[in-house]
Structures are given as structure tokens and as C-alpha cells.
Design brief:
Length: 555
């Protein structure tokens, strides 16, 4: 079961709710039902299994979020809701010092409690994992604390079906060099730190020739910078050491920074005729993202020559202005460059100029577009740029980096998919788009929408299989990542996959498959061999109920 908006709000606010010290009686929005069902059980610590008292436990009708109840567990961790109508209920618990969690929760999914004949809903065990904490110190080359260092936390993320490492949080070190990331969920994390040596001085260079600087009165040992440093003592993300974090862990990870000679880089920047200059932007890859690199100083020398100082050597993506005509948008170029030489003169002509894209959008079978509607461009690193379509169904992107993109569509209601991308004289099925350097593209996008919901049951040896991961796999999954749908089976083995776009699919149910790279064909193809093939009809609306149960496969 996919968590509802109300339940997600409960998860986010659960900690604050648990700060209350008074025990409240159950609040109910249900009518009395003397012949109703019960949901009862025990809340326990996910580590060790000991019962937890004073946990705020909530249930919510999955079809009507206005119908909910709350209670607080007794000293033995017991809770009970009675006089319930037949139906499905989301069950969750919150307590200070623990992660707010739903019943058998995995990512944004959980197992709903189904009340009805033949289902045991009175001996449930709701497990709450305790918070984990990751802390440490940022130290300099002498072992002294580094104040005001930026410490970034990255986490492995498998929600897209392909393991990626994404930035989740940043903190500043205090006057003791200490940082702390609290309230962490179990998972695999990485940390990195950026800082400036407190003693660093970056005198402007006096150029004697290409790559040569005249000596200055400043000691060169002070003209240094700290490179981005990952735990443990790595300056490249590929060499970073992972930090496995379990529920309840209190881990320490120190980062020691070592200075390197700072580079002074020369950029030729255009003048818009009004003596307005735009500084280049330096970025470095960081796992599956890009991080902007702060520079410690910049100074305009001779006309059109900008010197940037305080940069550590490495491979960068350099985004540079190439056109700054008055009254017109700034145009940029982008290049990947090895910045290794002090006094390096960077030629913007080597960069690839950015492009612009204008698209007209239409929805198949509809005279008008939904509002709002967002068109997204996603590159191979899953980095996304997005723009909202206007009332005419047009959308414009400026400063698009050259490369291959997936074109996606998102709205507030039904699910949408890009069916065709058309350019003058050429039409391509699918949603891929190649953007050439310095191009101005005019394209037409044809979308298809769907409110079809696919529902069914999963079984294990002939019995209902709660808690299994169900994956709806499109044909050619590598090219149709946005068509995947997932759910977690409820107590009666039922599942519901919303917003399915018309087309052929395979439905698979996998036991404890949450850590699989389920969107990779090499992984999911094995399960599809034993899945159920279905076809969702064009213009289908409402619910498609599967006649055959899906057999749960072992991971």
C-alpha cells in the first residue's frame, strides 16, 4: 500500500506529537458499531523486540482519510481499536527517540490492516526503529578543529529502482569542529566536508607568461586550499568509504582535511558593453549529482580577464558565459576540464554552447491540458530541469546543456507519459530527445494520460502474502523507466497500482525485494519470466482487476 498524504503528514509530525506528556483517550471519527472488528497488538522496539509504552498509535481508513483514530500504548506496549467497520486501515506509531513508522513499512510503502472474516487483526506487532546518529569532527592537518566547515550527508537511494547516492542533508561544524546528523533511518551513508583554511591568503598573480606567476611577498605555503574530502581520507567520491548505519546506532566518523596548493585560474569573460561581467561557475561531480564549488577570491585584471583563486586542482565542469548582449538572456557554454596548472588560461571557445528548447504540448484525445502541467528533462545522471506549461500549452527551456534527455510529464491528477516527440519533418515514438550544442529546438510533444488502476492479489503457497513488493514492469523497461509502478501487499495479499499508462506489462511479486535494483533489466528479467503478463487498454479508466493471483517469488 502506498502511503497517503495524510499518513505521510503523520510520519513527519509524529515526533512532535510524541513530545506531549499527557495520555489521551482515543479520538474517533467512526460511528459506533457494536458488531464491528478489532485491530489490536503490541508496539515493540525494532531492536531487541521489547514492548514500548506511551507510543501514539494511529489508524486511518485508506479510502477516507477523515476517518481515523488515535490511542496511546499501555506499559506493556499494547494497543486496541474496536468497533471498526470492514475495510482497510493504515496503522502507524510515533514515539520520541524513535522513527515514526507504519506497519511493515518499506520506503513509502506499508501493509494495510484489512478487517474482515478469517483475518487475524488482533495479534499485530508494530515495530519502531530507534533513531540513529552519525557524528564526528572535522580536523585540520594539525589535528585542530575546523570551524564552520560544511559537512554533507549522502545516502544510497533505491526508490528509483537503480541504486543512486544522493545528497540528503548538510550541517556546519561548530567551534569544536563537531557535526551531527540525528534522526537517521537505517541505510548506507557517505559524508564529505568542504572548508577554507583559516590562514589561507590568495594574492592576485602577476603574469609573466602562460602558466607562470611572478613571486610575491606572500609565503606560498599560505596560498593553499582544502579539496573536497570524503570519509575516509578520500578526495574523489569513487574512493569514499561507505558508512553502514543500523537502527539505534550512534556512530562517529572524523574527517581530516589536508591543504594543497591553490590554483589561480584565468578566464576570458565577455563584456556586455555596460561593464557588466558574469563570473564562471565551477562544479564537481559528487556521486550522482553535481556540487557547486565556492571560490575564495576573484579579481578583474585586464579588460575581459578574470582571475579566480583558492581552487584545489581536480576535474571540474566549468560553466562560462559566452554571450551577454544587453537586454538578452546570458548564453553559456559548458566543458569538463582538468584544472591542474597554476595560472591556467581557460579558453571558453573549447566549451559546448548551451541550447534552447521550445515545446508545444497536446494531450491525446483531449482538447485542453490539465493545470498545472510540468514538462521535465532528465539526463543520464537523473538530474532534472522542469518548466510549467502555459495556458497555450507551450513550455520553454533556456540554457539546456547538450546531451540526451528523457522528456517526462507530471500533473496534479492522472499519470502522464510522453508518447511522441516531433520536430519539423520528423516524428519519433517514445520520449527521448537529443540536444545538440548551440541548437534552438522547436518540438511538439504528444502525451497520453491514464487514471487506470491495476488491482490484484499475491499468494504464497496458496495463502495470502502480506508485505511482498509488487512491481509492474513495462515492456522494454530500460527505455520506459517512468512506466514502472510498485506497491506493497496488504494483510489479505491485495495490492493496487495507480496511474497505469496503456500498454503491455508484466506483474511480479517479490519477497523482501526492497534492496533490489528492480529497474535494471538484468535484475527484473529473471522475475518477469515467472510473472503475469497483462495489457492495459487505451483510454482505459477505472480499475482493472486481475483474475489470477500473483505467486510471490523469493528474492
Amino acid at each position: 500500500m502506498l502511503l497517503s498524504r495524510y499518513q505521510l503528514a503523520i510520519l513527519l509530525l509524529g515526533l512532535a506529537l510524541c513530545l506531549s506528556t499527557s495520555v489521551t483517550v482515543a479520538q474517533s471519527a467512526y460511528p459506533a458499531n457494536a458488531a464491528g472488528f478489532r485491530i489490536a497488538g503490541t508496539v515493540v522496539n525494532a531492536i531487541g523486540g521489547n514492548p514500548l509504552a506511551r507510543v501514539r498509535v494511529s489508524i486511518e481508513d485508506t479510502r477516507d482519510s477523515q476517518k481515523f483514530q488515535q490511542t496511546v500504548t499501555a506499559e506493556d506496549g499494547r494497543f486496541e481499536f474496536s468497533q471498526l467497520d470492514p475495510g482497510k486501515y493504515a496503522l502507524s506509531g510515533a514515539k520520541r527517540g524513535f522513527l515514526t513508522a507504519s506497519y511493515e513499512q518499506h520506503e513509502q510503502f506499508s501493509t494495510a490492516i484489512v478487517t474482515g472474516a478469517g483475518l487475524d487483526t488482533e495479534h499485530l506487532v508494530l515495530r519502531l526503529p530507534p533513531f540513529a546518529i552519525l557524528s564526528g569532527k572535522v580536523l585540520d592537518e594539525a589535528g585542530d578543529p575546523v570551524r564552520q566547515a560544511t559537512v554533507s550527508l549522502y545516502a544510497e537511494d533505491q526508490r528509483s529502482g537503480v541504486t543512486r547516492i544522493r545528497k540528503v542533508r548538510s550541517e556546519m561544524s561548530d567551534d569544536q569542529g563537531t557535526y551531527e546528523f540525528a534522526s537517521l533511518r537505517p541505510g548506507t551513508y557517505f559524508i564529505a566536508s568542504t572548508a577554507t583554511p583559516w590562514y589561507a591568503i590568495h594574492p592576485p598573480s602577476v603574469q609573466q607568461g602562460e602558466g607562470q606567476r611572478a613571486s610575491t611577498s606572500v609565503d606560498q605555503s599560505l596560498d593553499v586550499a582544502y579539496p573536497v574530502t570524503y570519509y575516509k581520507d578520500a578526495t574523489e567520491p569513487d574512493d569514499a568509504s561507505p558508512i553502514p548505519v543500523r537502527a539505534g546506532d550512534h556512530l562517529e566518523a572524523d574527517i581530516q582535511l589536508s591543504p594543497v596548493p591553490a590554483l589561480h585560474l584565468l578566464f576570458h569573460v565577455p563584456d556586455n558593453g555596460e561593464h557588466v561581467f558574469y563570473s564562471p561557475i565551477l562544479q564537481r561531480p559528487s556521486f550522482d549529482g553535481m556540487e557547486q564549488v565556492p571560490v575564495q577570491g576573484s579579481k578583474m585584471g585586464s579588460p575581459g580577464l578574470l582571475e579566480i583563486s583558492g581552487v584545489a586542482a581536480g576535474r571540474y565542469t566549468v560553466r562560462m558565459p559566452v554571450s551577454v548582449a544587453p537586454g538578452e538572456p546570458v548564453r553559456f557554454s559548458e566543458s569538463e576540464m582538468d584544472l591542474t596548472t597554476d595560472g591556467q588560461d581557460l579558453d571558453l571557445a573549447k566549451g559546448q554552447p548551451t541550447s534552447s528548447l521550445k515545446a508545444s504540448v497536446k494531450l491525446l484525445g483531449e482538447a485542453s491540458l490539465p493545470r498545472p502541467l510540468w514538462i521535465l528533462l532528465r539526463n543520464s545522471k537523473s538530474r532534472v530541469v522542469a518548466e510549467q506549461a502555459n495556458e497555450k500549452g507551450e513550455v520553454e527551456f533556456s540554457e539546456v546543456m547538450p546531451g540526451k534527455y528523457e522528456v517526462l510529464a507530471e500533473g496534479a491528477g492522472p499519470a502522464y507519459s510522453v508518447l511522441r516527440v516531433s520536430t519539423p519533418g520528423h516524428e519519433t515514438a517514445g520520449h527521448s530527445l537529443d540536444v545538440a550544442p548551440g541548437s534552438s529546438l522547436d518540438v511538439s510533444l504528444t502525451l497520453v494520460g491514464s487514471e487506470t488502476r491495476v488491482e490484484g492479489f499475491a499468494k504464497r503457497n496458496g495463502n495470502a502474502a502480506p508485505g511482498a513488493m509488487v512491481v509492474l514492469v513495462p515492456r522494454n523497461p530500460e527505455a520506459n523507466h517512468e512506466l514502472f509502478r510498485r506497491d506493497q501487499t496488504d494483510l489479505d495479499g491485495s495490492f493496487s497500482l495507480p496511474g497505469v499508462i496503456p500498454g503491455p506489462y508484466t506483474v511480479c511479486a517479490i519477497e523482501d525485494g526492497w534492496d533490489l535494483d528492480w529497474a535494471k533489466p538484468a535484475v527484473i528479467d529473471h522475475y518477469c519470466e515467472h510473472g503475469l503478463s497483462i495489457v492495459v487498454a487505451d483510454r482505459g479508466e477505472g480499475t482493472m482487476k486481475l483474475q489470477d493471483a500473483i505467486e510471490v517469488q523469493p528474492k
